[in-house]
Amino acid sequence: MIVVPVIGMMALAAWIFGSQALSAHSVDRDIQQALATALDTSGEIELQHLQEVQYGYGICGAYRTADGDGYTSFFYDTNRERLTLDVTSPKYTSNCGLAAIC
User: Fold this and answer.
1) Domain count, the chain
2) In this predicted model, what pLDDT tens digit does every residue of 58-98 receive, in sequence order?
3) pTM score, two decimals?
4) Does residue 102 form part of some domain?
5) Is residue 101 part of a domain?
6) Which of 6, 25, 58, 66 is deepest in the core (most CB within 10 A)?
7) Which residues have a Cβ under 8 Å from the Cβ of 49 and sit 6 or more positions away?
8) SS3 content of the chain, % helix, strand, coil (to 5)
9) From CA 99, how far away is CA 51, in angstroms rounded?
10) CA–CA distance from 102 to each of 18, 44, 61, 98 (Å)?
C-alpha cells in the first residue's frame, strides 16, 4: 500500500529534476550559440561563472573562445534571448553590476 505512492513520488521527482537539468543545458547551448554569432566564430566557447539574475530571466557570466587568452564578461537575457557584451552598458551594469564574476 505504501510502495506504490512512494515509487510514484520518486518517479515524479526524477522527472522534475531531470527536466530541470536538461533545461539548464539547453540555456548553456543557447548562450554559446548567441556568443558564436555575435563574435562570428565557429570555434568552441567555454562558459564559466554562470549566475542567474532577475529571478532566472537573465544570466551573467564569463566566456572564453578557443583562441582567446582570458575570460570576458557577458549578460544574456533569457526572456528575449539577447546577448550583451558591453560591460559598461546599462543593461549589463543593472543586472550584473554586483556580480563578482571576473
Assistant:
1) 1
2) 999 999 998 878 899 999 998 888 999 998 989 898 888 76
3) 0.69
4) no
5) no
6) 58
7) 60, 61, 62, 71, 101, 102
8) 45, 25, 30
9) 8
10) 30, 20, 9, 11
